[in-house]
Amino acid sequence: MNRGEVVRQLRDLGVAAGGVLLVHTSFRATRPVEGGPDGLIDALLAAIGPDGTLVMPSWSGDDDQPFDPARSPAAADLGVVADRFWHRPNVRRSDHAQAFAAHGPLAERITADPLPLPPHIPQSPVGRVHELDGQVLLLGVGHDADTTLHLAELIAGVPYRTPSWLTVLKNGRPVRLTYAENNHCCQRFALADEWLRTAGLQREGPVGHGHARLARARDIVRLATAHLAADPLLFLHPPGAGCAECDEARASLA
Fold first, then answer.
1. pLDDT (tens digit, 9 = 90+) per residue, 84-130?
2. Per residue in 127-151, pLDDT tens?
3. Separation CA 113–CA 99 (nearest Å)
4. Is the peptide bond before 118 cis (omega within 30 degrees of 0)?
5. pLDDT tens digits for 44-67?
6. Mean pLDDT, rounded, of the chain
7. Over pLDDT 90: what percentage of the chain?
8. CA–CA separation, 197 vs 98, rounded Å?
9. Are 164 and 179 in contact (CB under 8 A)?
10. Which of these, 101, 90, 103, 88, lies nearest to 52 by C-alpha position?
């Protein structure tokens, strides 16, 4: 599929010119696209135009090595598009291990905060996209990849936290930094599909050869926090479901 067709699909989906667009993507689910991963990035940039800001996750996922924004590759599970994006000219990348990358007029504002712990607090790239009324595009992936739902958990004050760590440089030496994170398997983030569809707040359709979901970050957070207010453990698998990650999150309540 050529770039022009992908741009048309993105605009038909509702991607806003001049807006902030946070993208989580699987190129495997979207290909083939003319120009490969870079061709898809070109299409995303064309769809939002010169006044828009494109944002992608860009952390390395290696908790045992200090993060270097100029060298550390993006984690493999973020996909090849995310790893190609931070290498491109005029892309700004966060200077910390929970990095996102951004291109456009608001890139510095989105990526300038210091290390956010837990990673998706309001003073983080995901929080800044929400603050700026950005859109979230899930391209070839579902809400289990939607970091905005982690932001919603923290805003809602979910009670679970599991031990996490990362490695930072202090006085030129690597130091392990421990913290508590609202972590679990994320499979039940798929509940957001029903909430957003029922409210008419999620656009869906093809982009490339993949299925895409598009919603405003504020709508995702608003609906998720409302449901979490009624059941703060809603995103965790129930006890006995055989999910070790969710069991660990539940155990943290003690």
1. 999 999 999 999 999 999 999 999 999 999 999 999 999 999 999 99
2. 999 999 999 999 999 999 999 999 9
3. 10
4. yes
5. 999 999 999 999 999 999 999 999
6. 97
7. 98
8. 30
9. yes
10. 103
Q: Give the CA dihedral 176, 179, 181, 185, nearest 10 degrees.
A: 30
Structure-token pair, residue 242: 């055989």
Contact predicate 150/182, CB 8 Å:
yes
Distance CA 173, CA 155 (A): 34
Question: Could you please report the per-residue DSSP string of the chain?
Answer: --HHHHHHHHHHHTPPTTSEEEEEE-HHHH---TTHHHHHHHHHHHHH-TT-EEEEE-----TTS---TTTPPPPGGG-HHHHHHHHSTT-EE-SSTT-EEEESTTHHHHH-S---SSTTSSSSHHHHHHHTT-EEEEES--GGG-THHHHHHHHHT----EEEEEEEEETTEEEEEEEEE-----GGGGHHHHHHHHTT--EEEEETTEEEEEEEHHHHHHHHHHHHHH-TTTTSPPTTS--HHHHHHHHTT-
Q: How many CB atoms lie within 10 A of CB 36?
A: 14
pLDDT band at 254 (very low <50, low <70, confident <90, very high): confident
Q: Which residues pair with 176 in a beta bridge?
A: 167
Question: Model pTM greater than 0.70?
Answer: yes
For 91, the token pair is 């892309």
CA 219, CA 137: separation in Å to the nearest integer?
13
Contact at 8 Å (CB) between 165 and 65?
A: no
